[in-house]
Write a structure and sequence with these properties.
Length: 325
């Protein structure tokens, strides 16, 4: 890979050393076409211009370069030594330019490219992964790189230019990012069979706090929101168990270790299948949007923009939570 890039740089440098900056690229392309065809008339047909326009362009190029580049013969056009040198560099340089133009078109059409995404484990599994599945099937030649980090760490990755966009739990703060709101999430409390009776009535926050509570570890945005919600309602919530992921909270609740605070959108199947039961509270936990964050300093690629727009349009199933009063 590095040797290929180095070769391109050498070719471009060589071309630049020959090409006069005051000469338009069109004249070089015309000269190249004539040299390839060996005929003014054939080059004119290929470029859809008149033969006189071809002759005039070649004449101006020779004047600007102060060198004779072509000689007309009964059999067509023959390059002078100077013309042959120029052609050899132009041939390589124009191939590189054409390849670059094709590459850009491929990027625009999502035929190739790369996307670097940062997201937490839970948002990656339940929100990003389904979108990646369909996106990759439609655009198999786009390389995908996903980095799992907390929301705050994802912000840092974006600020450092290590990802194209991030998926985070809000709120996050940085003057170097732009935040777009995605689908709404509904936090809720769930239990397994052991505490199923709690699911048959509305429970106050004070009563809920008397049971074994399972929460995410301190420092996560989701945990901070739940702590702030309880404190705002005059209740100090002290968890029995603190875990590093929502998925573990779901499993711990399922086997009866306590009441877990989870994201209702992501436990729909467990609730519908009777593996978990929702504990309704008064007041209910508020909804919150998923955050899609991009850098203010760096433009996104066509591929990254397309995937992020798909994520913004994604709708998640709502939790069957009913606010109670």
């Amino acid at each position: 890979m590095k040797s290929g890039i180095l070769l391109k740089l050498i070719l471009i440098r060589g071309a630049i050393s020959i090409i006069n900056a005051e000469v338009s690229l069109d004249r070089y392309r015309i000269f190249h076409a004539v040299a390839q065809a060996g005929s003014l008339s054939q080059a004119a047909e290929k470029l859809f211009v008149s033969q006189s326009a071809i002759s005039q362009s070649i004449k101006k190029l020779e004047q600007q370069m102060e060198a004779s580049l072509m000689i007309r013969t009964p059999r067509g056009i023959r390059l002078t030594p100077e013309g042959a040198v120029l052609f050899s560099y132009l041939d390589q340089a124009l191939q590189i330019i054409d390849a670059g133009e094709r590459h850009v078109v491929d990027l625009q059409r999502l035929n190739r490219g790369e996307i670097r995404i940062g997201a937490s484990d839970t948002l990656c599994r339940h929100y990003l992964l389904p979108a990646l599945d369909s996106f990759h099937k439609e655009h198999p030649h786009i390389h995908l790189h996903v980095t799992n980090r907390t929301s705050q760490e994802t912000v840092t990755l974006l600020e450092n230019g290590q990802i194209d966009f991030g998926i985070v739990n809000l709120p996050v703060a940085s003057d170097r990012i732009t935040i777009f709101e995605g689908p709404q999430l509904q936090d809720c409390f769930v239990v397994g069979e052991k505490y199923r009776d709690l699911a048959n009535r509305v429970v106050s926050l004070e009563e809920l706090a008397q049971f074994p509570i399972l929460l995410l570890e301190r420092g996560s945005v989701t945990r901070d929101r739940i702590d702030a919600f309880f404190l705002a309602n005059g209740v100090a919530l002290i968890p029995e168990i603190e875990l590093g992921s929502i998925d573990l909270l779901i499993e711990f609740a399922r086997i009866g270790l306590g009441i877990s605070a989870v994201i209702g959108n992501f436990v729909q199947d467990d609730l519908a299948g009777g593996h978990l039961f929702e504990v309704r509270t008064n007041p209910a936990l508020p909804t919150r949007p998923i955050g899609l964050i991009v850098s203010k300093d760096m433009p996104m690629s066509y591929a990254a923009t397309a995937l992020m727009e798909r994520l913004r349009e994604t709708r998640l199933d709502s939790s069957p939570i009913s606010s109670s009063s």
